[in-house]
Amino acid sequence: EADIYQTPRYLVIGTGKKITLECSQTMGHDKMYWYQQDPGMELHLIHYSYGVNSTEKGDLSSESTVSRIRTEHFPLTLESARPSHTSQYLCASSSPGQAWGTQYFGPGTRLLVL
Amino acid sequence: DAKTTQPPSMDCAEGRAANLPCNHSTISGNEYVYWYRQIHSQGPQYIIHGLKNNETNEMASLIITEDRKSSTLILPHATLRDTAVYYCIVLISNDYKLSFGAGTTVTVRA
């Protein structure tokens, strides 16, 4: 069982607010990922990290930013939330000893921007 | 990346084996077959992956045909908690971009 945590699980917030979605893993995984997924729809990679101080943008254009100051922590920040940011955000990680496609996901954060 | 084709849905009786097929006829030699599942409203869950040999872990078995153009995921004793959408994807070893497609909706019935 993978130990990857996301908080909050649900968030309702007004337009223009700054929010940070937290993601932590206790497995010592070097690679971490943020995906966005609408209900019943495809996963979209928005950010990833190879390790500490490494961050890259994914395929889906996103107005969010990420940081990786510690191995276990990969927070995602929206400086000014908009209704178009309403979605589910999924954090994942993978081990240096495994193929990159072997990813362990957190429970997700469901974001609703009013 | 190779495309995969899965049946849109299947039912399975609780306690019986569930055999989930996947076609990947254009798979290349360095692409792995991965299986994930997603239970409603939850994050995806990694199940198993393989290159050309059959693989087994505590969750499932993966049978890959000799020509690697298709595979079958076997859940040996399906439970109600195995009801989910199952995704078959192919990736090279250093590819991290998961893209799931439609998958197979598996419903396990009591």
Task: Output the keywords.
heterodimer, A: 114 residues, mainly beta, seven-stranded mixed sheet, four-stranded antiparallel sheet, 46% strand, B: 110 residues, five-stranded mixed sheet, 9 strands, 0% helix
Distance between the first and last residues' Cα of chain A? 35 Å
Low-confidence runs of at least 5 consecutive residues of chain A: none
Low-confidence stretches of chain B: none
Task: Give the largest interface.
Answer: A-B, 22 and 20 residues
Give the integer mean of the pLDDT values of chain A.
Answer: 92
Describe this structure in words.
The complex is a heterodimer of chains A (114) and B (110). Chain A is 0% helix and 46% strand. Chain A is mainly beta and 114 residues long. In chain A, the strands form two sheets. In chain A, strands 2, 4, 5, 6, 9, 10 and 11 form a seven-stranded mixed beta sheet that branches. A four-stranded antiparallel beta sheet of chain A has the order 1-3-8-7, with no helix packed on it. In chain A, a hairpin with a 5-residue loop joins strand 4 and strand 5 (43-49). The radius of gyration of chain A is 13 Å and the shape is globular. The N and C termini of chain A lie far apart (35 Å). The model of chain A has no long low-confidence stretch (mean pLDDT 92). The mean pLDDT of chain B is 93. Chain B is globular and about 40 Å long. In chain B, the strands form two sheets. Chain B has a five-stranded mixed beta sheet with strand order 1-9-8-3-4, with no helix packed on it. A four-stranded antiparallel beta sheet of chain B has the order 2-7-6-5, with no helix packed on it. Chain B has strands spanning 9-13, 18-23, 31-38, 45-50, 55-56, 61-64, 70-75, 84-92, 104-109. In chain B, 0% of the residues lie in helices and 47% in strands. With 110 residues, chain B is mainly beta. Chain B starts with 8 loop residues before the first strand and ends with a strand. The chains are: A mainly beta (114), B mainly beta (110). Chains A and B meet through strand 4, strand 5, strand 9 and strand 10 of A and strand 4 of B.
